Amino acid sequence: MTNSQLTPGIAAGRLGAGDYAQNFADIAPRYDPHEARVAADRCYFCHDAPCMTACPTSIDIPLFIRQIATGTPEAAAKTIFSQNILGGMCARVCPTEQLCEEVCVREVAEGKPVEIGRLQRFATDTLMEKGAHPFTRAEATGKTVAVVGAGPAGLSAAHRLAMKGHDVVIYDPKPKAGGLNEYGIASYKTPGGFAQAEVDWLLKIGGISVENGKALGSGLTLDGLKKDHDAVVLAIGLAGVNALRADGEELNNVLSAVDFIAELRQQPDRAKLPIGRDVVVIGGGMTAVDAAVQSKLLGAENVTIVYRRGQDRMSASAHEQEHATSVGVRIVHHAAPVRVLGNGAVQEIEFAYTEDRPDGLKQKDETFRLKADQVMKAIGQTLDGAPDGLKTEGGKIAVTGAGRTSVPGVWAAGDCASGGEDLTVTAVAEGRDAAEDIHAQLTA
Amino acid sequence: MADLTTNFIGIKSPNPFWLASAPPTDKEYNVRRAFEAGWGGVVWKTLGSEGPPVVNVNGPRYGAIWGADRRLLGLNNIELITDRPLEVNLREIKSVKRDYKDRALVISLMVPCDEESWKAILKAIEDTEADGVELNFGCPHGMSERGMGSAVGQVPEYIEMVTRWVKQHSRMPCIVKLTPNITDVRKPAEAAKRGGADAVSLINTINSITSVNLDSFSPEPSIDGKGAHGGYCGPAVKPIALSMVSEIARNPETHGLPISGIGGVTTWRDAAEFMALGCGTVQVCTAAMTYGFKVVQEMMSGLSQYLDEHRMSVDDLVGRAVPNVTDWQYLNLNYVTKAEIDQDLCIKCGRCFAACEDTSHQAIAMSEDRTFSVKDEECVACNLCIDVCPVENCITMRQLQKGEVDPRTGKKVGDYANWTTHPNNPMAQAAE
């Protein structure tokens, strides 16, 4: 039996084999050297450049672009990696249109920024493909640091600590290191096993061991870690998913968008991934867009993102939203789920229209229903599995300065820590800065 | 449409755009294509003496430098004069001229520095009905090692001598092509005039090595790991050419001597600038070698539009800027300007700030919110901010009016006064 986009219910193999390859190919392939030079030449080498200020990791962007323009992408890569060891992934996933490229003087002047993200990828790919690691470790300090979580924040902290001469053990519950880089980013942004290749390359610094299948609460305790190590970094991300708080949420095929994306990333044969004919994604962020777009790319006929507020409040960038609509995803604003309907499994979902009022978001009486074989929740993640005894703030581990928690000797970085946006690049910056702070304390 | 017809030392052409003696004019096939594309004239690639022709290298003969997006800015070559038999060239010249009587066809010549050789070549070309000759005293590579080309052009006495022979043994109009590889271009131009030249053309190419291969350590273009200097041309040499042209145009000894301008002419605008500095025609090579012969169409339409808009004829344009070329000592020291930044146009890149703060006069202020403004009390009006600003007309110069106080010096702007009368000048003459 051959499935198609019109096959009712949830089915795998809705598309032809070639379609999958095309749909999940690299969305923004690497520049060839000539393209890179042309793009690099547009950079004005600004004084005290706004792009550099806008970068959470403060990469010296004008310098690395000039290094590309003069034919030394390897030197450019080192400029990038010295500030952001995950510069390769950030080149692929950073919402540059909201960061460096948004403030590029050529964006302001002409509406066409220097393509910083793609230039960064050209430089980092060039160096990484040579296989060598550009940094060496300082003399061993004899100190050990535990890093809990092998996502961007944890990897960044571990690398910087190892570089400073400390020995690092990273603990992670998942079978592979990488965190959201491995499990949480749309496939077309990082095809070809890049996330694992990047982890392998990063670990070449030496002095870092990764222990998979271990998490706080399952094999690890904060006290135990503190006892065995000179410092602890918590980079555990946000493992919980917010509930819809709508009737019928427990029906089958109401799932977390995060889980859907993770499963997709781990299945190399996309034709084996079942997807509904009608898919509804609830939320307004990057996760919602990634889930919706990939549902469409897997062959769903109708994919709708429903967001409870207006477009201006969506945390997915305009660029991401455009990408979604360009592949055929419909985005509905100002509607909140009230009921999930179905018999065992979801069949429909009912929304109430909403309006923003001075006293908050209000649901109106008018409602509508959407057919849904699958409902994906992408309404934010929550801190889950944080050890007791740490002060929290706004649902995150409270930190001061460079990631210091309320418990001495324990730092937190990345999405689990208070402050900063939940972005890969921010997590990298926080991990790096926590490592520097730990180093300063351990060597004081 | 403005009338672009040109009469240059009696040689008529429908427009002042000629192809220079160079690879594009080596063969009938190319020249016919050039005339079909609209070129007003052609200086046929340099002919040598009868006998076995010269040979060229069999590896790369051109090197280049590039700007953004591989835009060719400068080209160099180590090609010699024509490597085809003399009789073939003569036959082709005659054939082309017969079919394009309205176009200028000038023959470039280079033979050994003795009267008999020149007499012989002039006799050989007599029958072609070409409009004139151009003496190649400029070629700086290869031929110069054999005592020809720029080896002649660097010795004014030789220029005069050979030019005199040519005028003696031929009735054809004679253009002397000058080399820029000298210290004072006025001397060879004066020599050409003394020898009876009807015009000079300049500049020929400049001695150059375009780059060094950092793996093989050979100069480029590389011939089996070695390189010899070539002749540099293209947009990069235009400023040098303009200056040399202007020196000849304003030199009392050579003022009024017709000039055919050469050196990086790429657009109608370049051509118009050469003409304003006294050139009756311009000669083009690199632009054609980069983009093909069609570029002449832009040159014709552009010059025509410019002349129409300014209600000028070609003759009105030629030499119009010459009176404004002067010596430094006569520049008005009471012409005081200050840079001004248009905040609406400014894109806040800060290049003006970096340039001024690091390398000039600390005359630009930068605020917390990246607003850049000029400190009049520090600004010497050097123009560097304008030169490095990526936005055209964002920074401009405002002239201080007479009587206005220059905040930098605290002095009022006065009437025209130059260095010759300045109190700091030990040689100053008392003002009358």
Describe this structure in words.
The complex is a heterodimer of chains A (444) and B (432). Chain A has 444 residues and is of the alpha/beta class. In chain A, 35% of the residues lie in helices and 21% in strands. Chain A contains 17 helices and 21 strands. In chain A, the strands form seven sheets. Chain A has a five-stranded parallel beta sheet, sandwiched between helices. In chain A, strands 9-17-11-12-13 form a five-stranded parallel beta sheet. In chain A, helix 4 crosses helix 9 and helix 5 packs across helix 9. Chain A is globular, with a radius of gyration of 22 Å. Chain B is of the alpha/beta class and 432 residues long. In chain B, the strands form seven sheets. Chain B has an eight-stranded parallel barrel with strand order 3-4-7-8-9-10-15-16, surrounded by seven helices. Chain B has a four-stranded antiparallel beta sheet with strand order 5-6-14-11, with no helix packed on it. In chain B, strand 9, helix 6 and strand 10 form a beta-alpha-beta unit. The termini of chain B are far apart. Chains A and B meet through helix 2 and helix 8 of A and helix 12 of B.
